[in-house]
Amino acid sequence: MKNFAISCSILGGFVLSFGLLSLFIKERLYIAETAVATLYGILCKRILKGTQGEELMQNLETPSFVFNFAHIVLSLQLVAVGVTVPKAFLKKNWVPIATLLLPVMAIMYLISTVIVKYVLKLDWLPAMIIGSCVTPTDPILASAVLKGKFANKYIPSRYRLILAVESGANDGLGFPLLTLPLLLLRFQSKELTLGEAMKDWIVNTWGFEILLAVVIGTAIGYGARVLLKYSMRRLLIDKESFLVYILALAILVTGLTAMIESDDLLAVFISGLVFSWDEEMVQDMKDSHILEVVDLVFNQAFFIVFGMIIPETVLDPKKIFAAALIILLRRLPGVFLMKMLYLLPGFSRKEAFFTGWFGPIGVGAIFFAHHAQHVLKANVQYHDTAKIISDFVYTVVVMSIMLHGTTAPVIHLHMKSKQKKGKKAIDAYGSDTEAEKDQEILHLQQLM
């Protein structure tokens, strides 16, 4: 009962206090709410230390709780990202999206693995596991910068949507990068032969988990859209059920695919994409802002918890140095190489720099790290390896939250284009002015 009371006080206190200053913090200071929530969680940890809140801290640090919490937060965010992407946009911009999801992602994996290997002095397989955890761009941290008045004003719609699609898809597509070194560790410990490990990776990971997830996500997303349209035409659904329909879709897809141990992250994102093919219906849901509100509360709650469970080992100088190298170097080389090879059409040098810098690491990395920890702890000889992986991933996530969540002013100066004098101001409490809405719609039509 005491833990419940403390938890409610912590979350309610943050939502209320941050809400009073949210516009100033996000639109004037350009600081993401995820960074503020994490700092708030760290402060709460200091206050609760040595008090009756110690039991709450121990419960929050339970790996299964963190894993499942990260799981549901990711699912909600992925379906939210999926339903924002118009069908025509994917057809028009499939080349840069595929480039970011395939060669750039592979280069990020390679660079991250090499940095971990030589800076932390780990073996190749543990380094590959960490590399796979920190490779995907986090959709939750990405949305903190890709949404809002700052993004609408200074980041072109095309790049926002491209990065949104990338951040939504690469968590699911990053799973094979994680399972490969985990299977090779089982080969190393003689649990599997090399042939069995590679067969498992190709057949089970790529076939059952990836391809089946795409099929499941497509089928459920399409079916949910058809059924909803039928129900609306027959006036069978009430307003409240209509507004939470996308949330229910995310939870259903997550549950079904997780139950058969397929890649539920990819399935959820695909279901959101397919569902959004009826843009008029999705727009009605988006206008209600119900998804944004639920998403906001869950995200804030997760990063408060994250701040409260950050281990002291994140302050190790070697880990901080390795994390800084990963954040600075893992993405920029691949993006600029692809630009030189003309695989990112329409990207100027400024947009390539923004794309190369903006690859935050967050909830997805924590989810992958706890999954790896669960697998490795099944073998006694890898207990220490599991601890090293988890602690370092936490270090990278903390640095990414602080750097990507507070460097928006730099992005602001870099991306800012010349604004026409006398341009109408944006309404702080609502949507953009009509002139800006028209400009945004025209720009999207040109992209499609």
Question: How would you characterize the overall build of this protein?
Answer:
- The C terminus is likely disordered.
- The protein has one domain: Up-down Bundle (Na+/H+ antiporter like fold), CATH 1.20.1530.
- The protein has 448 residues and is mainly α.
- The chain is globular.
- It contains 25 helices and no strands.
Helix tally equals 25
Strand content: under 5%
Radius of gyration: 22 Å
Percent helix range: over 70%
Q: Give the overall silhouette.
A: globular
Secondary-structure class: mainly alpha
Number of strands: 0
Q: Strand count, sense and closure of the main sheet?
A: none
CATH topology descriptor = Na+/H+ antiporter like fold
Distance between the termini: 54 Å
Please mark out the parts with pLDDT under 50 across 5 or more consecutive residues, or reply none. Answer: 418-448
CATH top level class name: Mainly Alpha
CATH structural architecture = Up-down Bundle
Rounded mean pLDDT score: 86
- Number of structural domains: 1
Order of helices and strands: HHHHHHHHHHHHHHHHHHHHHHHHH
